[in-house]
Amino acid sequence: MTHAEQNLAGGGDCRRTSVTTGYNTLRRVLLSGRHRDPCEKPMCVWRQRLFLVVKTNGDDMHKTFFALSGLAATVIASFISPETALGKAPVATGPDAIDTAAHAVSPRVGDMGTVSAPGLEQKREKPLRLLPQATGPEQPDPVVQANAGPYVGTTTPVGYPGVGSGDYGFTPNAAPPDPNLAVGATQIVQWVNESFAVFDKSTGALLKGPVAGNTLFAALGGGCAANNDGDPIAQYDKIANRWVLTQFSVSTTPYLQCVAVSTTSDATGTYHLYAFSYGTTQFNDYPKLGVWPDAYYITFNIFNNGQTFAGSKLCAYNRTAMLSGAAATQQCFQLSTSYGGVLPADLDGAASLPASGTPEPFINFGSNSLNVWRFSVNWTTPANSTLTGPINLPVAAFTEACSGGTCIKQPGTSNQLDSLADRLMYRFAYRRSTAASAAR
């Protein structure tokens, strides 16, 4: 059940990477791991942590924490003054695209059919589309973490099989499997290319599934119903206590992002369904979704016709409309080919709500630096929506492992892991604290 992009850090024997860093210092261990994870059965995961501690409104008593989570990766502690930096950053006004999504309501997930092991003829390998290299030639890392941190105390978790090979009579049919998982108040949803399942959070009992991803979107018709293309994200909106499940449709055009928002906190219930279009040219690869009070923000690596990298796309979905099942629009800003692998900030709980009107932060890395953007969406007057950035933050020198390719060794096998070192790992988690002692 483990993976670089699962949202849950489990227990077991996995160690937690822990490094204390200084002002604007990048602690780079290794950006690694997209699939073929050697820690496949136990619910344990190595976590990447990127911490940005931001003083807001010039008040030392208010600290904002950002953390990037992933498999054995980057650790950062950085203090920035957004008021100073934003004043020097470029601002784009008015989104490049404003589109209304097709929408519908699903039947209950609990009433949907389940899938079993697919035939060999249905198995497929999805290509890894690498991003242009942002760093220079490989060099020794001056701040690499050479040793694992100490074991930390944990509570023994409930262990149970996930959506894996042979579990519940099911076998994933795609590589990479892109396992992704979210935890709600009483349930857990895990999605593995190209099916998802719902589990009881207390007992680990399978409540429903595995269900084919496109079955959830059948009521929409079109590509979302016909194509089960995966690259999924399972999210839990902790503000509204709703599930947000999404995958793309790219086997046919128009290229679509299929989004389901549950009508209650029950993941086996009904969902409001939406299909957001990116036309017949912009292949919306590597979707990453974050929850924010004024929108569901999502990023893509756009590849024109699925071949040529065209830069990251940063979009806002009308969260309020989607929670109520109303017609919903998206607003998008297209970045240049200089920027890829951008991540949206994602709230780490209702207690972490930002101040009203706070723009959504985004982040990626460049050559020995981080880039930060802020998206301020205006649903009433879209022309007044703005994207500010990039704000460039220098960090200690680092390079991408084998330019983002496949080079990560595993014990007991000659098979190597994809490094995915050409991008930061999902999630870019946001946490806000009003305690002065939060800075650490």
Description of the molecule:
The chain is mainly beta. The protein has a domain of 291 residues. The protein is 5% helix and 40% strand. The chain is built from four helices and 28 strands. A ten-stranded mixed sheet has the order 1-4-2-3-28-22-23-24-25-5. A five-stranded antiparallel sheet has the order 6-21-20-19-18. Strands 7-17-16-15-14 form a five-stranded antiparallel sheet. It is globular and about 55 Å long.
Supply database-style keywords:
mainly beta; five-stranded antiparallel sheet; 440 residues
Strand order of the largest sheet: 1-4-2-3-28-22-23-24-25-5
Rg result: 21 Å
Largest sheet: 10 strands, mixed
Q: What is the average per-residue confidence, as pLDDT, rounded to a whole number? A: 80
| Residue share in helix | under 10%
- Strand percentage lies at 35-45%
Count the strands? 28
What is the element layout, followed by pairings?
Blueprint: E1 25-28, E2 49-56, E3 59-68, E4 74-80, H1 82-87, E5 91-93, E6 97-100, E7 102-105, E8 124-125, E9 174-175, E10 180-183, E11 187-192, E12 195-200, E13 206-212, H2 213-216, H3 222-226, E14 233-237, E15 242-249, E16 256-262, E17 271-277, E18 282-292, E19 295-304, E20 308-317, H4 319-324, E21 329-334, E22 343-347, E23 360-366, E24 369-376, E25 386-394, E26 406-410, E27 413-418, E28 428-433
Parallel strand pairs: 2-4, 8-9, 22-28
Antiparallel strand pairs: 1-4, 2-3, 3-28, 5-25, 6-21, 7-17, 10-11, 11-12, 12-13, 14-15, 15-16, 16-17, 18-19, 19-20, 20-21, 22-23, 23-24, 24-25, 26-27
